[in-house]
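W.,

You were right to be curious about this one. When I first looked at the sequence I had no strong expectations either way, so I just let the prediction run and decided to look at it fresh. Below is the sequence, 177 residues in total, followed by the output.
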Amino acid sequence: MLDLLFMLDTSGSVSQTEFASVRKFVLDLTAEFSVHPAGTRIGVKAFSQAVYDICPFTSDGTVVTNSVNSFNHAAGPRTCTGKGLDSCRQMFERTGRPRISARRVLILLTDGQANCRADLTIAAEHLTSIGVETFSVGVGSANRQQLEQIASSPANGHVFMVSSFSMFDEFARHLWP
């Protein structure tokens, strides 16, 4: 069993075209899992200056697809990663009946650097304390040091850098070969 949450950067540095690649990546990776109540549940959030709940945890793949496809890229002026991480922790905590044996995974996709006041280290530690394994995926010139602060240990197995949004397939092969 797996509870998989995607957190997507929708700050102003992510174009509509690039967000389309992010959307495709999420849907392609979701299709790789057996999404049903006894298997995988998927959730999706987006963040910029605000945090957006695209899709709450669900065991219905059609709901994930429809929610992700209907979300309009909401380019915000800032990259409030810590705020997004806090929101992810809250989502994992309020998922209803806990699935004790479910692996909890967060995949953060960003092209930038956090530029809001929230402390990334504390937000990441809160996720770790509730059993969430975090993968950080940086695109282009994303701040690797911040990605390492966010990711679970060891960083070399949880931090991935790709040169462009079109390279997400390469990351997916490393995560779930």
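Here's what jumped out at me. The helical segments are 16-31, 61-70, 81-93, 120-129, 144-150, 168-175. And, maybe more interesting for your project: Strands lie at 2-9, 40-47, 51-58, 103-110, 132-139, 159-162.

Coffee later to discuss?

I.
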